[in-house]
Amino acid sequence: MMTSTEGMLDIRQSALGNQLEQKTKHEGITSQGLPATARSVAAGIQSVQQELEAVRREQAKLQQAIYEAAQVQRRLCAPREPVWGEFEIAGEIFPVRHLSGDFFKVMELNSALGLTVGDIAGKGLSAGIWQAHLMGLIQRYARRHSDPADAVAEVNRELCQDQAERPMTALFFARLDPRENELVYCNAGLPAPLLLRHNRTVERLEKGGPMLGALQEAAYDSGSVRLNPGDMLLAYSDGVTECRNSKDEEFEMRRLSAAANAVGSASANQVLFSTLGAVLDFADACPPEDDLTLLVIRRREGTMIERPSSRSKDFSAPHRGPTSVARLKKAERRGNRSK
């Protein structure tokens, strides 16, 4: 799979190659000797070759621009591994194309922490362009409203207003109060995040409403849960649970909770990459068909520690174990070959 612009360049390059081949055949060029009209044929061949080279340069510039845009996306989703009091947080996106339609964001909202995971319908350039706009809207209204449902409703109304081609977006937004250890959330169409309790029970966070961009006056509700020591929250896009293997089986929530629970006493970052590794191991030779996004929030066991400043650490690049890196790179190579 590829973007429409890349496809157009490839088609143009192929057409020029065919044009060159037909021209040489038409003019009678053979390996045994030159044609009678060698001068005009040579000029025509040179012209086509120059145009081919121009297309190749244009394609290289486009690929570089897309790569740079992908790096901007990664920076917009930072911080990727913050610590907030007793809470460890880790997030990662694995796009199936250069740009992702998925996003996550961790933001300070005065005394609370804002947590967001989103999935924009579609993939590639169009979804990637919408991403920055949506993240800006979420941050704006998250600072205006203490109730996540009110913030999500405002984002939805803004998207629906005067937008002929607004993006359908699934969104999970929550406010985490580290003093009360309470998480108040609104889930707008994203697969229900999983709350893995320390005693191995699992709860689904389903309160919310429809996807953003569907109905301008859609109603949204907030839910709340208390995070106890050792509890862990997984928020994810549907690319994780719908990832398929060669038997056409989906990874599903059951496997997701089992994979996270298998390393539940580890750090949030270790849980993140161990779980993503389990998803890719399950898919094996089948490259993911959709972006994979996972956000892990874990309350540490033990006493409260002093909250470090998130600005004191560079969060632009995640910390990965060697096994997780190898799995992700392997899947990325498979995905690139399928495009």
Please give a quick description of this structure.
It contains 8 helices and 12 strands. The chain has 339 residues and is α+β, with helices and mostly antiparallel strands. Residues 27-32, 303-325 and 332-339 have low confidence and may be disordered.
What would your notes on this structure say?
With 339 residues, the protein is an alpha+beta fold. It has 2 domains: 4-69; 78-338, PPM-type phosphatase domain (Phosphatase 2c, domain 1, 4-Layer Sandwich). Helices cover 42% and strands 20% of the residues. It is built from 8 helices and 12 strands. The strands form 2 sheets. The chain has a 6-stranded antiparallel β-sheet. Strands 3, 4, 5, 6, 9 and 10 form a 6-stranded mixed β-sheet that branches. The longest helix is centred in the first third of the chain and has 39 residues, at 38-76. The chain starts with a helix and ends with a helix.
